[in-house]
Every structure is written in C-alpha cells, then in structure tokens.
Amino acid sequence: KRFLTLFARVDGKLDEAALEGLLMRIRDMESMVRQWGPLNIEMLKWLGNLAQEVQVMGSGPKPGAIYVTGIESGGLSGRKHTFIVGLDDGRFPAVGMQDPVILDSERESLSRATSTMLPTAKEGLTLQLQKFSYLFSRLSGPVTLSYSCKSIADDREMFPSPVMLSAYRIISQNRTVDINDLVGSLQPPVSFAPLESGKSLDMKEWWLSKLCAPGPVLDTDRLLKSHFPHLARGKEAARLRGTSEFTMYDGCINSPDKSLDPTEDVGPRLSVSRLEALGACPRHYFFSNVLGIEPPEDVSVDKDTWLNDAQFGTLAHDVFYEFVSQWLGNNWPPDFSRDLDNILDIAQDKAKRERKSIPSPSEAAFQQQLEALFRACKTFLAHESKQLDAKPLFLEASIGLKRGYSKGTPLDTADEIIFDLPGGTSVRLGGRIDRIDKVDSGSPGEYIIYDYKTGSSYKFRSKDIFWCGRSVQHGIYVHLVEQALQKQFPGSRVSLFTYFFPGIKEDGLLIQYKSYQLSDLPKVVQLLCNIAAKGAFLGTNQPGTDCTYCPYPEICGKAEVVEAQAAAKLGNINEPRLRDMRELRNREPKKSK
C-alpha cells in the first residue's frame, strides 16, 4: 500500500480510479487480517493477481453508448448490432500449450487412475470454442466479425481465425472454401489511417489519412498554425535562426528590463565568472544567471577518478592555505628540504578528510590523485622557497563578498566594490583572492597578487590580454585589491598579478601581468555590461573554444549549426545590438590563412 501511495504515477481519471480500487482491496484485506488473524492465502500471489482482478470505471449497458464485454458475458445486453473483434488466428482460439511438468497424456492417465478431472490443453481449446458457440446462440440481429490483418509491432501479415472460416462456410453454403477464398471475399481493410479522410474518427486519424494519401498535404503552414501552434512557432524559429537577423529565437530580448543591466541599482552584482561567461557565450550567461537553469546533477561514477577538476582544485587550495598560514608573520621563505614533510603531511590529512565526505571509487583512484596532490605540493614548495623579495601577507581575502575562511583578513569586506566605467556608469564587483604578498624591495606599499590554478593555462594564451572578454580575472582582482588596500594602507598599489600553476598539467608555470598592462579593462567590462543591458544573448560563434565544458548542449543543438548561425548574425554590421560582442571578438587578431 505504501509503495502504491508513494510511487504509483497517476495520469488522468482512469489511473486515479485504478489506484483507489487497488488501495481499497488492500485495505479490505488488512481489515480481514486484523479481525480474523492470518488467512490461508498466499499473500504474494494474491497481490500479484490483484491488478488483473480489480475492475475500475466499469458499468452496465447504457443508452447511446457502446457496450464492451467479453465472450462469456456477450449477448446479454440485448443489443441489435454486435461486433466481435480480434478474431485473428494468433489470438482466438488461444493456442493450448501443454503443461511442461505434467503433459496432457499424463494428466489423462492420472485422471483415470484417481477418478479426478485434471484439465488438459485440448480441453481448454474445446472450452473456448464451446463458449464462442454459446455466445452466438445468445445473439440476435446482425453480427460483424473482424480480425487484424497486419501486425504493426513486427510488420507481418496476419490471418483470420478458424471460427471466421467456419462462419464464412455457413454463409456461403460451401463447405469446401478455404482461407484464401475468405480473404479474397473481404472488403478493403479498415484502419486508423482511412483511405478517405472523411471517415476519420479524430484528428490523429485525419492526419494519418493525409500522410498516407498518394497526393501531398496542401497548405501545411495554415494547418500547423491552426492545429499545432507550437510546431508552427518552432518552424518559424528555425527559419529565423538561419537568417542574419538577430531575433528572440537567437537570444534577443526586445525590451530588456533594468534588472539585466549590471550598471543599474537593481541589476546584478558581477563576479569574475559572470563577466567571463558573458565574454565567452552570452547565451550561456542567460541560461545560467538570468533564467537560473541548472543541469541535472551527474550521478555517474568514474571508477578511475576520485575528485573532479573543481574538487581537486579546492583541495589543493586548502593545502596551500594551511601551509602558508603557518608562515604569516614568521621568516619567509620556507626551506624545501626542511618543510617538505610538513606540506605533504598537510596534504595527506586534507585528502583523508575529503575522502570521508567524497568516498573514492577505489583505492587506486585515491592514490593516483593523492600522488598528483603531492607533486603539486612539491612544485609549490620549490617555487616558494626561492621567493626572497616578497612575503605573504593576506590569504583568501574576501573583498565584496561574505567571508569564506574563518580566520579572515583585515581586507575582508562584504560591501560591494565600485568599478567605474568609461560611459560614466559603474558596476558592483566582488571576489576572493588566494594570496596577496607584500614586496620587501622596491617602492614602499607595493603588492603582488597570486592566484593558484591546478588546471590548464589555455585561457591565458591569447594575444589579447583579456581574451575577448573571456579572461578578466587578473584585471578585476587588481582593482579589488587596490581598492581594499587603499582603505587600510593609503598609497598602496599592486604592481604584479601572477597565475601560478603548480599542478601536473603545467608543472609550475607562472603567467604574470604588470598593472600598467591592464589599463584597457574598463573598456572591456563596459562592452560586457552592454551585452547584458541590451539583452543581446547570442550564442558563441566559436563553439570549439567555448562549448567544451558547457552544460547546455542539449538546449543549443549541434555546435556547427550554432557556429554558423552566430557567425551570420555577427557579420551583419547593420545589427546594432551585437556591436559590443562584435567589438570584443575583434580584439583578438585574425589568424592568417
């Protein structure tokens, strides 16, 4: 009963009545057991047969309605016209299969020896024919016999039952006719795809009759719009997507609300990930940050992998954070030989704790990623042991965000950081910075920002320092840190931003940007904000770059189609709403052919 209540799918009145009928029978059985105790019934067998025994929404014969019943009770309604359907040779009479344990011959011998009547397959066949003859004796008026002449399931021809042949012999008064004579005398088959559309019982049959007719269906556009408006809209959407016009079917919001504009007070507070999503694929930004579409969680288990890339990166960040935390205010740099065991112990302890919350599929998978973590720690320590000119001062600083780590830093603030744009507007920003070092040599109040990356460096190999808006983290973080430092230490400045790749993929690679190289950031952010404000959420024209890890391919469709459609619309210079995206894409020099 609990299983039916919780998991039975109810879709319509028939399902609802069936569920209530089953539950009522089960409740009645429960009441009997409580009142009389255990019954002499095989309960599992009773439950197994219950679905076949319970009748729902049944009724007796009613005026103006077709009455459907079985062979045993047919003819009792006194109707003037009777139709008997399903009389193909595979359905009636049902083939009598012998019991494989006790064969018919053995049953007959046992019946004679024990003076009992064990049923046989032959007797079952005889009983079916007997019931059929009783049915005919009860009928009055015209009787129509029919059979299915074709199996749709396996596309094979079917033949009439022997009882139809017997009826034909009686009607024709010719005992010598056979199945071929019977089939040849029948009228053309009647089906749910009638030869004449006027004989259709419903809209589905009408469409089938048109599709199966020799001539084409006329005025399909009008028919689609009238009867299937969703298909008509889909056809129109497909047509418009194939043009150079930027429409709502491509991601254009004709009257964008102010809540989309990051420069408005009611607009969204921007993060690095949101800005970079706008730069890579505005449609991705729209799905994720405007519509809030979240793809289903991937519950598949990779037996060879313990942590995904994001989880491994978080684990490595935690290890580096705890290790460097020990050195804040102490002598820096660490010594590789002296401190190697320390950082590896931290890594092992963190990995074991992570394993408790995210079990590894196998010991081999755990050990493989533990070794990768150890290697990243060694690369990290080797680099840090050579840093003589700067010391870590702030770790995991939350600027414009809620504090992420319990220790916090003096720079932490949940207040939004304002970033001024060239057009006279501004946006609100926030971010969490892995590490800020103070430079010992050089100008006073000079700082370096570090951001740890355990993956690939492909995002930072473009000739455009902001990769057409896809990579703005370095510029945004320099602005955030300088704003926060100025409040605590007036006159401070960030001289260098460093991406540090200690993972196996890049093995200690450093990608660095000097502050003066980032002067074009306000213009790039302005263009990104314009895309959102105008509601111009076109899909990317470079799916090979932007769709590799996208969670929405089922929505967008084939990458090559998306690419061709986006390229045509971006190439339409008369489309002002795509001017900002076009300008961003043109920041990167075109490859020579």
UniProtKB/TrEMBL annotation:
Record lineage: Bacteria, Pseudomonadati, Thermodesulfobacteriota, Desulfomonilia, Desulfomonilales
* UniProt xrefs under InterPro entries: P-loop_NTPase (IPR027417), PDDEXK-like_dom_sf (IPR011604), PDDEXK_AddAB-type (IPR038726)
Q: Which Pfam families match?
A: PDDEXK_1
Citing just one GO molecular function, the answer is: DNA binding
What is the organism field in this record? Desulfomonile tiedjei
Q: Which UniProt keywords apply?
A: ATP-binding, DNA damage, DNA repair, DNA-binding, Exonuclease, Helicase, Hydrolase, Nuclease, Nucleotide-binding
Protein name per Swiss-Prot or TrEMBL: PD-(D/E)XK nuclease family protein
Please list the residue ranges annotated as the PD-(D/E)XK endonuclease-like domain.
269-556
Q: Name one GO biological process term.
A: DNA recombination
